[in-house]
Amino acid sequence: MVSHAQTHRLESGGLIDRSAPLNFRFDGKTFAGFQGDTLASALIANGVKLVGRSFKYHRPRGILTSGSEEPNALVELRTGARREPNTKATTAELYDGLEAASQNCWPSLRHDLMAVNQLFSPIFVAGFYYKTFMWPAKFWEAIYEPAIRRAAGLGRAAGVADPDHYDKAWAHCDVLIAGSGPAGLAAALAAGRSGARVILCEEDFALGGRLLADGGMIDGMPAAEWTSRTLAELATLPDVRIMNRTTLFGVYDGGTYGAIERVNDHLPSPPEHQVRQRLWRIVAKRCVVAAGAIERPIVFAGNDTPGVMMASAMRTYVARYAATPAKRIALFTNNEDGWRTVETALGAGLQIAAVVDARLDVSAAHRALAAKAGFPVLNGSVAGVEGGKDGVRKISISLTGGARAEVEADGLAVSGGWNPAVGLTSYHRGRPKWQDDISAFVPDGAPPGMVAAGAANGAFGLGACLSQGFAAGAAAAQSPGHNGSAGTPPVADDETFSLTRLWHVAGKGKAFVDYQHDVTASDIELAQREGFESVEHLKRYTTLGMATDQGKTSNVAGLAILAAVSGKSIPETGTTIYRPPYVPVAIGAFAGHHRDEDFHATRLTPSHHWAAEQGAVFVDTGLWKRAQWYPRAGEKDWLESVTREVKAVRSGVGFCDVSTLGKIDVHGPDAGAFLDRVYINTFSNLAVGKARYGLMLREDGMVYDDGTTSRLAEDHYFLTTTTAKAGPVMQHLEFCRQVLFPQLDVQLTSVSDQWAQFSIAGPKTRDLLREIVDPAEDLLNEAFPFMGAREVALRGGIKARLFRISFSGEMAFEISVPARYGDALVRNLMLAGKQFGVTPYGTEALGVMRIEKGHVAGPELNGTTTAADLGHGKMMSTKKDFIGCVMAGREALAAADRQVVVGIKPTDKKRRLRSGAHVIPKGEIPGSASSQGYVTSVCFSPTLDQWIGLALVERGRERIGEIVHAHDPLRGEDYDVELCNPVFYDPDGGRQRG
Amino acid sequence: MRIVCPFCGERELGEFSYLGDAKPVRPAAGAPEDDVFDYVYLRDNIAGAMSEHWYHAGGCRAWLKITRNTLTHEISSVEPAAGAGAAEVGA
């Protein structure tokens, strides 16, 4: 039987399933546990005390807590690609085959060489990095930072892609409840009975919160029975959803909450087609925070020795997991609640070595219990712990009055009182307020719609938890209008509350405040002496509360010590700002399915599948995949393919999918007037059946976008945008229509996805079109001149639109058909065009031909150019108001020495050009002062058999023929180029009109 | 953050895109350059209730005028732009 190996497992009891034994490995050793264990409880059941090494000093550390506030027991969970660093052993659910390894130790956990850091601890004080690694400055990147990164840090990331999937989901409810303890369950009962839609999130896999370990009597029955009855009733309510393994980690505006559901973290790997975790965004009208409270440590020398544990955690391990962290336990408490651990331990047959109680007024009942069980009750505080990596051996006590005592024990339970979990209620900059009678911060300034109840609200008694939770649940249900009867609230007695404030026991030896970041009480005192008195400064200077646990066990003690040394009260000292997430959330969960090829949506053109069959090489343009070129067998590189495609178009006929252009239908009697306002040129006078090139500006006078717009009917224009600006232009035009010019009777419809559009170009374009278009359609110049645009019928009867526009400079048409016919059209073009040698071309050839033709595109429409810079100054109407017209007239935008588009050719015909090179006047020293512009677009022109380009150059158009210097410091190239007419090919435009 | 679109109902922030201050009014044709300059460039940096233009890009494509408190993100009013949705033509 595996259970025999579990030396620290009680014979009976606990909420573990002894019929389901599990094997697991920690640091290579095999252990056994049970279903219902956490990794921490299973390690405890096997007598393992040392689980990790601390961050800075590499001190041996054990398990401090039993929940998500754990600062010490962080492990690397799983192996290979699924290795998760900094996983809390206290929340990791045990499964068969679990593998975990300790962190931050070398060569092993028991013999960690980095523990020599402790010898240098006088220099590893607060602000150590700031003080030590100041100079020489150049050492930082090369020496200090890599060395620090190696020495510090905790677990190691997997280093390879995560094989699992993560999901994101939305949920909506009336009442959202955080926590399934007595307050949370009571709130769910009240809200659910009232008829509200309820979601309850519980981060544990088991429901019940502190009831699981502390029990008690509710409605006259044991807590476990009440819990199961309550859960049974909640299951019958129609709209109550209980989500265990789900932590509510953040609060966002408008009642939106973030929750992380660990769907399959309790299994070795997610079952097929299931996700590991799911990130929930929950929209709730009201939220009840019943997240409980966190027991706080007392700071004393040696308080980080393995075997020193929070009192509540100690009894959780005993009662819930039947695992005994120690056989002979000492308790150090300053409050009544700590004594529960004594009762639980005695009930489980464990020995109590002593109770060290800081209070003078220990109750007669407790004294009687001590007398009966035979242990001393000492008034005073723990001043030191003797022990090491094998755990606690001896505890030294300074008694009130000055005497000292020693007690032998193998475990020390500590209780310094309880801090309500004020994270969620403080995430909208709410500052928790100090409540003197319980010596703790309680929620204040919670986000709208949120209320805390029970221990999270500072009401620690079981009766108070139930009544507050129930009242909060009923009220939360009523505000969204659910007025059903909440029924009778559950009742229980409150425990006695008694606490003497004690934060820090002065003494020799390191006394830790923040275990995870190795911040000691003396670090805080030092920081205060050095002037870091503000709690926010203290946090950053000492790194108190900045570790993965965000100081859940350390923040309040830290600021109490700061308050004491600076002579202020705790409320005067205040808290730091609380920020989500409440627990670490994997970036994978935030990304969800948006990774790798699903990082963003992919848009495919209507001819995509056909192009893929042809072996096209695709390029990402925004979300689109566009065919870049179509390689053929035997072609050695892209340049050879592109050159062939260009030559085929210029000498015969080719086609290119241009469906990615933005397309907008503009309808209405004022459509022309509207376009006049948004373009620099006039469209109201465009004849029906004609297309016109248009340029639009931003209101600041710079060019925004360009494209052709066709008038298909008196009140119907069809506007195209660039691929990149399709969305933004639609948004801009809607702004113009709805906000700026609402008096115009015009409507806009985005039809980008409705039309498949192809450019067909080359001298044989008409020959090819005649094979496609109904023979009755006249495509000759007379009936269909350059810049003509109208609907035609295709053979077979499909209606298409033909636009006689040319980006390539060749005789060309753009044809558009409803998108669903795009694939058929492209296949027909290939079939019908075979006799003419039709050649599909991609975006590279498209780009080559537009540069040869001197057309501007993205590199020239770069947001800093005016219409005149692009050579379109004359298009700008002076007779009408349009977007950008006034600002475009500003002095600097009309200056004579602006950089304008000009062509460039290398003086050495064999030279390759590259965009980005600076244009420097001949004979001047290259530099930012002498730069007169830069090369924007280049290509190898098959037509001219040399590299050509476009550039933005000061007074460029006046300097045609001038030889200038191209200086490319990035690539270390220098060469001469000639400024020339940007229209390299067919400058008088005869071919496109032909 | 959640915005109640007058046409679509309450929707999540991700459906909307933000433009900015809704107070400046585009000067009429022929206005002096200084007025247009102010319209294009000058903005108040408001800590408190601010009137803003938002676009329901992931929904009905209406431009909305939203009053939002820049300190708390509380939205106190949402109005469609004059030419949005069923707004009357020529009004």
TrEMBL record, chain A:
Start and end residues of each SoxA A3 domain: 508-592
Alphabetical UniProt keywords: Oxidoreductase
Pfam families: FAD_oxidored, Fer2_4, GCV_T, GCV_T_C, SO_alpha_A3
GO BP annotation list: tetrahydrofolate metabolic process
Residue ranges constituting the GCVT N-terminal domain according to the UniProt record: 608-880
Family, as annotated: Belongs to the GcvT family.
Protein name: Sarcosine oxidase subunit alpha
TrEMBL record, chain B:
Domain of life (superkingdom): Bacteria
Protein's UniProt name: Sarcosine oxidase subunit delta
GO molecular function, one term: sarcosine oxidase activity
Stored Pfam families: SoxD
InterPro entries, alphabetized: SoxD, SoxD_sf
GO process annotations (BP): tetrahydrofolate metabolic process
